[in-house]
Specification:
With about 280 residues, this protein is an alpha/beta fold. The protein contains seven helices and nine strands; from the N terminus they run αβαβββαββαβαβαβα. A five-stranded mixed β-barrel has the order 5-8-7-6-9. α1 packs across α3 and α4 packs across α7. The termini are far apart. The site of hypoxanthine has 14 residues, from β5, β8 and β9.
């Protein structure tokens, strides 16, 4: 079994951009990229005039392994706007490395994307934010203290993460939720390496540190996107109360089931946000 995460080259990214351009044909270049996590698949189904490209045809993209995750880029329009939707991400818990999505995020930036909308499934630290809730990330805690930029050489690696989650995009998300009568929580997402779920003591620690939700993704891609100059919006779908906050047992199957149940509201919100983005984004 190979566990090393490839370090994609410039040539890999160029070839990936070229392949996506072929798939685009004469459609407009997408300015908005979406990276969909568990339970957010309905957003991909809402894409019109869709053409799919498998990650396997994109040399800068990862090979995916986890059940329940697809591995395709879907090009098309969502809410009337040209988008590139990444269905499936590689997680740091597969390798211990944080840079698995580096080539994919940079490819999107090179293609012309200027905004990255990320979605994930998360555990909630508050009973007032029960399963089915939506949360827009205001900030994150990088608890594993891993970075996808470790091997970068130039000074651009010292990325400023103040307002990593774009305040104007967050305000837009709030307005879109309100217009739909959806409650949108806002809070701090704690990234944990996983793949095991947390202990009750760890969740108490996370609460003390100021976390509102906990999950195993998103943060590496936010760092990569900010490094590539993309504005980032990230949304969590709460699939469970974190360990010890509620009394249910946690499992990956439960996460996927809970995400699927709340997926319709979540996807409608994403669609509304994408439609309402300024052009050029
Ligand atoms: N912990 C970590 N990651 C998760 C959880 C959780 O409770 N729920 C969904 N992803």
């Amino acid at each position: 079994m190979s566990t090393a995460v490839p370090w994609h080259t410039d040539a890999d990214m160029q070839a990936s951009v070229a392949r996506l351009r072929v798939a685009l044909g004469d459609r407009p270049v997408p300015r908005v990229a979406l990276l969909l996590g568990s339970g957010w698949g309905a957003a991909a189904e809402a894409v019109r005039d869709a053409v799919d490209v498998d990650y396997s045809q994109l040399p800068a993209f990862p090979e995916l392994a986890v059940g329940g995750h697809a591995a395709r880029v879907r090009l098309g329009t969502l809410g009337g706007r040209a988008v590139a939707v990444l269905m499936g991400r590689s997680h740091a818990y597969e390798s211990g490395e944080a840079h698995a999505m580096r080539g994919a995020v940079r490819t999107l930036a090179r293609l012309g994307c200027r905004v990255l909308v990320q979605t994930n499934a998360a555990g909630s630290l508050h009973t007032s934010m029960p399963p089915g809730s939506l949360m827009v990330l205001s900030d994150h805690l990088n608890l594993p203290q891993r970075s996808p930029l470790v091997h970068e050489r130039d000074d651009s690696r010292f990325v400023d993460l103040r307002d990593a989650y774009d305040p104007a995009l967050r305000a837009l998300a709030r307005r879109c939720a309100q217009a739909r009568g959806l409650t949108l929580h806002e809070g701090v997402y704690a990234w944990v390496m996983g793949p095991q779920f947390e202990t009750p003591a760890e969740i108490r620690m996370l609460r003390t540190l100021g976390a509102d939700a906990v999950g195993m993704s998103t943060v590496p891609e936010t760092i990569l996107a900010r490094h590539a100059g993309l504005r980032v919006l990230a949304l969590s779908l709460v699939t469970n109360l974190a360990c010890g906050v509620g009394d249910e047992a946690l499992s990956h199957a439960h996460t996927l089931q809970a995400a699927q149940r709340a997926g319709a509201d979540a996807s409608a919100l994403v669609q509304a946000i994408v439609a309402a983005l300024d052009e050029p984004a």
